[in-house]
Amino acid sequence: MLDPHSCKLRQQRLSDSLADQGFDALVIGHPQQIYYFTNHRPHWLQQAALVLTNDGASHLVCANKADTNASIDGCSSYEAQWNATNRSDQPALVARAVCDWLTAIGARRVGIDASAVSSQVLLTGDFQAKSIADAIHDLRRVKDADELALMKVAIKCTEAMYLRAREIIEPGIKELTVYNELHAAAVRASGEAMTAHLGNDFACGVGGGPARASREAQRGEIYILDLGPTYRGYFADNARAIAVDRKPTDAQRRAWDAVVGVFPIVERLARPGARCRDVFAAASEHLEKQYGKPLGHHLGHGVGLEPHEAPHLNPKWDDVFREGEVFTAEPGLYGP
Fold first, then answer.
1. 111: part of which helix (H) or strand (E)?
2. pLDDT of residue 335
3. How many domains does the chain have?
């Protein structure tokens, strides 16, 4: 799991980044953010909340029983289930506990994230509230050593998945069979169940999409796999293209050569302080010069607790690279 000391440091970095806002307390209710700051990962059917006060103290409200492994100063629990049935009013229950705690310490100005619990805090409490969602996402851009360790396991899962893909992909194999086999390969590689739905692309002969019922891979098609397994809350994300019959056409080979030529460009230009849209532009120019088509979608994006994070290698954003970020580079060419 995450390192308790690193979680505490992240709590302090968040508080320091918002010190000039005059908050009495910060309320965080998004499950991924709670995990990031405390090492407490709420069950996907249950709600929790973290409260950070301006004196550096932390308090966690979690489901059913206190988490003794969480990196916090205090913890209280609530009944998330009655006779093993999950309650639908959990966000309101957690918010009520948070508001009671905030009232007891005399908090008036509160920073909140974007979550089901925080929305209920707004409805329940009488506080001056302001969003801190952007500050949290900004903090999450640079990955700590404990995060990288988990992401490396997720990446190891993709290596096992692609090895299995090359063993089984052939004309006639069903897309759902590929999906199931690759899911099993990832679980074997990590030694435990994934912590999120295995999404991304498993459709053959098209630009992407989920595995389709009864659809079989056809001779002459390119099977594009974009894999995003998770390990203890953290994602990997990378893509490969496999000729179904192992006999790519001249056009497919030329497109592949053009796409592969993008990676040295990314490696050369992606540096702290560089603009992501400039790297996108250079990659798109290369593809147009080599194949006659510009880049038709993003060049890449950050990855971590979510499959898509900053930095965005996408002209719709104007992000600047920072040292310590982890991002994908997934150029592509599609169509005839």
1. strand 109-112
2. 79
3. 3
Residue 275's Cα: distance from chain center in Å?
22
Helices (H), the chain: 4-17, 31-38, 90-104, 116-124, 133-140, 145-168, 175-190, 250-260, 262-269, 276-291
Q: Which domain CATH number covers 131? A: 3.40.350.10
Q: Rounded to the nearest 5 degrees, what angle is found at the Cα of 161, between the Cα atoms of 160 and 165?
A: 120
Task: Output DSSP code: residue 336.
Answer: -
- CB-count burial class (<10 Å; 0-12, 13-18, 19+) for 82: exposed
DSSP letter string, 234-267: EE--EEEEEETTS---HHHHHHHHHHHTHHHHHH
Q: Where are the alpha helices (DSSP H) in 39-144?
A: 90-104, 116-124, 133-140
CA distances from 90 to 71, 78, 100, 111 (A): 22, 9, 15, 21
User: H-helix or E-strand containing 77?
Assistant: strand 74-78
Q: What is the pLDDT of residue 199?
A: 81
Whether residues 18 and 98 share a domain: the answer is yes
Looking at the structure, tell me whether residues 46 and 101 fall in a common domain.
yes
User: Hey, which residues does 243 pair with through a beta bridge?
Assistant: 222
DSSP 223-243: EEEEE--EETTEE--EEEEEE
Overall size of the chain counted in residues: 336
Tell me, yes or no, whether 257 and 281 share the same domain: yes
* Segment-wise mean pLDDT, segments of 10 residues, the chain, 336 residues: 96 95 97 98 97 95 96 96 97 97 95 97 94 97 98 98 98 98 98 92 94 96 96 96 96 96 98 98 98 95 97 97 98 86
Q: So what's the pLDDT on residue 82?
A: 97
For tokens 């995003």, name the residue.
228
Q: How many helices (H) and strands (E) does the chain have?
A: 10, 14
